[in-house]
Amino acid sequence: MTVRVLIVDDSATMRGVISASLRRDPEIEVVGEAGDPYEARSAIKELNPDVITLDVEMPNMNGLDFLEKIMRLRPTPVIMVSSLTSEGAQVTLQALEAGAFDCVPKPSLGDRHDFDMLGEKVKAAAKTRLRLRPREAAPARPAAVSSAGGFRSDGRLVAIGASTGGVEALIEVLSRFPASCPPTLVVQHMPPSFTRSFADRLNRLCAPVVAEAENGAVVQPGHVYVAPGDAHLEIAGVAGSGRLHCRLHQGERVSGHRPSVDVLFGSFARVMKGRALGVILTGMGRDGAEGLAAMRQSGAETIGQDEASSIVYGMPKAAFEIGAVERQLPLPAIADQIIKSTNLTYREAV
């Protein structure tokens, strides 16, 4: 089946770049272009595209406002095309929370890798069952914490990997963590410069301290460390020594990504062995599957998001199919299980 795409961008040059990129794929047809949301509204009615690429910053109406209108009036998978600026990143994150399928950065001279993934993301978006994601108040703290009278860590560390759909998923999981949560390292596939804005967003929404990981940072309870968008993140040191720290490096892409979930999980398998818990969330491809398998083989507990709650059941499926997932759960249950598993107070109570 050919995927029919409408390109919305106020720059004729950028529309040409996006169109040329997509037309290289024989499974994609660019059915139209629009220079602003008003042109786009007419084109959507006339052309009924399968997927829309949408610029974040446009005249007359910004991309976020237009996205919300699309999701309310004519739900269609949307991929945001964003500039690599702080403002662009913040608006793009809001768009992902509002229902955009994924985002790609506008191409730069330095690195086109993420932009070159646009065709694959368009095809994945067309196959995905669109689910509207209304904005809700922050979820209540899990029953595992309140029923046990508080959280007392068992000393394990948590590693989480996510990709497409991961912004929503990570907000769901991490906003349920107690302030004294286990040290948690996160890889979310996201363009460089977006991860700091994402970490700041999580920090405002969550009880623990959330920050972009820095090389050499000592991991501490009550902290969540998000991998920068252009570096691999590993756990380093000796388990049980109290001197575990984040290690960042510019190695080659692994499973097509930097940062790679496989790299994060692999370091946990080597360093932490059974003193860890690994979680793989929604995402395209199979990054993280082999690393999660290594974690499970080393004695760690492993969790995978189930198909019904995943925006894209790619990474969790790949991990499940090779036996890397010990327990498969819907998204709303994952935070609760992490806290149950690592909470000494809860385990003593039951």
Automatic annotation (TrEMBL):
Phosphorylated by CheA. Phosphorylation of the N-terminal regulatory domain activates the methylesterase activity. This is Protein-glutamate methylesterase/protein-glutamine glutaminase. It catalyses: L-glutaminyl-[protein] + H2O = L-glutamyl-[protein] + NH4(+); [protein]-L-glutamate 5-O-methyl ester + H2O = L-glutamyl-[protein] + methanol + H(+). Keywords: Chemotaxis, Cytoplasm, Hydrolase, Phosphoprotein. One of its GO terms (cellular component) is cytoplasm. Residues 151-345 form the CheB-type methylesterase domain. It is found in: Cytoplasm.
